[in-house]
Write a structure and sequence with these properties.
The complex is a heterodimer of chains A (about 170) and B (about 140). By secondary structure, chain A is mainly α. Chain A has 2 domains: about 5-45, no CATH class; about 65-165, no CATH class. Chain A contains 7 helices and no strands. In chain A, helix 4 runs parallel beside helix 6 (about 115-120). Chain A is elongated, with a radius of gyration of 21 Å. By secondary structure, chain B is mostly helical. Chain B has helices at about 5-35, 40-45, 50-65, 70-80, 85-100, 105-110, 115-140. Classes of the chains: A mainly alpha (about 170), B mainly alpha (about 140). At the A-B interface, helix 1, helix 2, helix 5, helix 6 and helix 7 of A face helix 1, helix 4, helix 5, helix 6 and helix 7 of B.
């Protein structure tokens, strides 16, 4: 899905929810009042976390560029390549499809697909969103989920490499 | 510091957040409406209380749904408050961010058909393993 389509879908979704509120308000106004109050409370709790997320995203976007990823992938070897696949995956921002052309190019240059799988899986660890995760799940779960994701990203990469790249 | 790079990073940071606002507002309002209008025992009936089965159900939902991970965290957090198990909620958010059925056609073209299918199937299975392992490890710490 392209960026413009995505933001349009996002707006349509919001429009549908608003419409739902309007329709229900004709029959059950008290439900809508309670729902709006609940939404307000929820948003008040989330908004400060978003300010922090923005700062973290800025820092990551400033230091991590596609050029940096390509250079490091080409220079690293052995266990360092696994470590870099994880770090690059964690630090990579933006939609997943944005990274497909770069990964496809790296694949054509001989990068084993296991590293690509590890990169893609470790993208699930999102440093910029850790404050939100922490807010909802607490420190310990944020830590154990992130740790488990990293371990399973390597396992997935090893399995893909073991199967022989699959192509 | 490079001013051009700062500007570019600022744009790259605020644009996705700005784009996610309508979706986030919609999700928050929908969650609030559902939790007020529908008694929790109705959606709780979707889950069995068995961690493995609940994880599979939650992962299936997470795999089908797509969008900004922020949405999955908000949904996950609210599911927890409704009494859905931590294993199921983690499976849901992990499947949401790691399994990409919507992006699958693009991934198949760019990275190969077999690789993409295998990667997504493994990601689905691993979403359950990650959930179980996270809860187990948290149990050791807490």
């Amino acid at each position: 899905m392209k960026k413009s389509e995505k933001s349009r879908t996002s707006l349509y979704f919001f429009g549908i929810v608003l419409l739902l509120y309007v329709i229900i308000s004709f029959f059950k106004f008290d439900i809508i009042t309670s729902a709006l109050l609940k939404s307000y409370g929820l948003l008040l709790k989330i908004i400060p976390v978003f300010v922090f997320i923005f700062v973290l995203m800025f820092i990551i976007n400033y230091f991590v560029t596609t050029k940096w990823v390509v250079e490091k992938f080409e220079k690293s070897h052995g266990i360092n390549k696994w470590i870099f696949s994880i770090i690059a995956g964690i630090m990579s921002t933006g939609p997943i499809y944005m990274w497909y052309p770069l990964l496809s190019e790296l694949k054509d240059h001989g990068l084993k697909k296991g590293y690509i799988a590890t990169f893609l899986y470790s993208r699930a660890v999102k440093p910029a969103l850790l404050p939100l995760m922490f807010f909802y799940f607490g420190f310990v779960y944020t830590l154990t989920i992130s740790f488990s994701l990293i371990i399973f990203s390597v396992i997935q990469g090893l399995i893909i490499n073991q199967i022989g790249g699959l192509e | 510091m490079n001013v051009k790079k700062i500007k570019k990073s600022l744009v790259m940071s605020y644009k996705p957040l700005l784009g996610a606002i309508p979706m986030m507002l919609g999700v928050v309002m929908l969650i609030s409406l559902v939790s007020v209008a529908i008694p929790s025992k109705i959606y709780m009936s979707l889950f069995t209380g068995n961690n493995i089965i609940d994880s599979v159900i939650a992962s299936a939902f997470g795999s089908i749904l797509a969008g900004n991970p922020v949405t999955s965290y908000i949904l996950g957090g609210e599911f927890l408050s409704l009494g859905i198990s931590m294993v199921a909620v983690i499976s849901f958010i992990v499947a949401w961010v790691t399994v990409g059925f919507i992006q699958l056609p693009a991934e198949m073209i760019m990275l190969g058909k077999k690789f993409s299918i295998w990667r997504n199937v493994l990601s689905f299975i691993f979403s359950i393993f990650v959930a179980i392992s996270s809860v187990f490890l948290a149990g050791l710490i807490l």
